[in-house]
Amino acid sequence: MKMRRTNGHRALTAVALAAGMAFVVAGCGGGGDDEGKKEDTGSSSSAPAPDEDKGKDGGSSSEPGQSGSLATVQGNGISLTVTSAERDQGGFLTLAGKVTNNSSGRWIGAEWISDEQELKKNGGSLAGASLVDTAGKKKYLVLRDTQGRCLCTKFQGGIGQGDTIDWYAQFPAPPEDTAKVQLQLPTMPPASVALSGSE
User: For this UniProt entry, which residues form the secretion signal (predicted)?
Assistant: First the structure.
C-alpha cells in the first residue's frame, strides 16, 4: 500500500509550485538574483495550526510540512519535533527528533514519566510515550530492557531554558502496511507521524 499524501502536504506542494512559477516569470524580467530565494519563500508559507488541533493543556499539533520534520507538538512551553520514523530490521520502530524548552525555567520531563510501575524508575524521560495505530486499533508502548530501562531518551539533569536536545524512542513496529501512527505523550496533543518503509 502506498503512503497517502495529506491535504496539508498537497497544499504546501501547490504553494511551492506557485512560488517557483513566480520566480521563473520574475527571472525573465532580468532580475537574475531571485533564484537563490526560492527556499525562503517556501518556509514563510506555513500557517498556524487550526484551533481544533490544540491539546487539552493549551498545546498544539502541526501536520507534516515544516522543513525537516514529520510532526511538531507544543504544550506547557515544550516543543517536540519528530524528524524521523524508521523501521529497523529487528522488528522495531525508532522515532527521533528534538525537544526544545521554551518555558520559564529548567524542564526535567517529570510529566512524561510512565504510569507503568516498571518504567517509573526511569525518571524524566520519554518512557510515557506510546504509539497508536488507529487503523489497526492497537497501541504500542516504549520498549524496555530486562532491567526496566526504557529504550528512549532520559532527561538527566533536565533541559535548560531555551535549550534544545535530541531525543529517540523505540517501539515494536506496526505491520508493514501501517502508513501512519499517532505519537502520544502525557500533557501533549497527539502527533500524526508518517512511517517510512510502508508500501
Answer: 1-26
